[in-house]
């Protein structure tokens, strides 16, 4: 049971470090968009950490948004060594996890589900169980 807490704490620490680096240290022009680190999941053995990114302010259904997202992932992959080194300096670990960057699609999915629910056109004005 204790191991799950360690991965959660390490994930939160990595999220904080990468977010801070995004604001101050990462100077890649491809990272000029509004980017948010939404979550970091660390594997149970601590060898990999998946960093979920959300690109704000773009319509995710457009082709240019997909190109922009792929450029952002490429920029993070280019800076992966620098980010891992900074994590190693700030967190005392024997082995710094290998970083994997992915676009977080949960916001898009949530909007899609909300639209489906709205399209159902269900009347919510009825009282609890009374007919």
From TrEMBL:
Record localization: Cytoplasm
UniProt xrefs under InterPro entries: KH_dom-like_a/b (IPR015946), RbfA (IPR000238), RbfA_dom_sf (IPR023799), Ribosome-bd_factorA_CS (IPR020053)
Organism: Lentihominibacter hominis
Key words, A-Z: Cytoplasm, Ribosome biogenesis
Name the UniProt record assigns to this protein: Ribosome-binding factor A
Organism superkingdom: Bacteria
One annotated Gene Ontology cellular component of this protein: cytosol
Major location category of this protein: cytoplasm
An annotated GO BP: maturation of SSU-rRNA
Function field: One of several proteins that assist in the late maturation steps of the functional core of the 30S ribosomal subunit. Associates with free 30S ribosomal subunits (but not with 30S subunits that are part of 70S ribosomes or polysomes). Required for efficient processing of 16S rRNA. May interact with the 5'-terminal helix region of 16S rRNA.
Family: Belongs to the RbfA family.
Family matches, as Gene3D superfamilies: 3.30.300.20
């Amino acid at each position: 049971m204790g191991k799950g807490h360690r991965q959660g704490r390490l994930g939160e620490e990595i999220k904080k470090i990468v977010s801070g680096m995004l604001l101050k240290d990462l100077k890649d022009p491809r990272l000029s968009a509004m980017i948010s680190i939404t979550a970091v999941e660390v594997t149970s053995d601590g060898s990999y950490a998946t960093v979920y990114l959300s690109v704000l302010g773009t319509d995710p259904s457009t082709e240019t948004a997909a190109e922009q997202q792929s450029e952002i992932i490429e920029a993070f992959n280019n800076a992966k060594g620098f980010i891992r080194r900074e994590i190693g300096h700030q967190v005392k670990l024997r082995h710094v996890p290998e970083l994997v960057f992915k676009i977080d699609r949960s916001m898009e999915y949530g909007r899609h589900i909300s639209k489906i629910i709205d399209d159902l056109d269900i009347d919510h004005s009825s009282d609890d169980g009374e007919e």
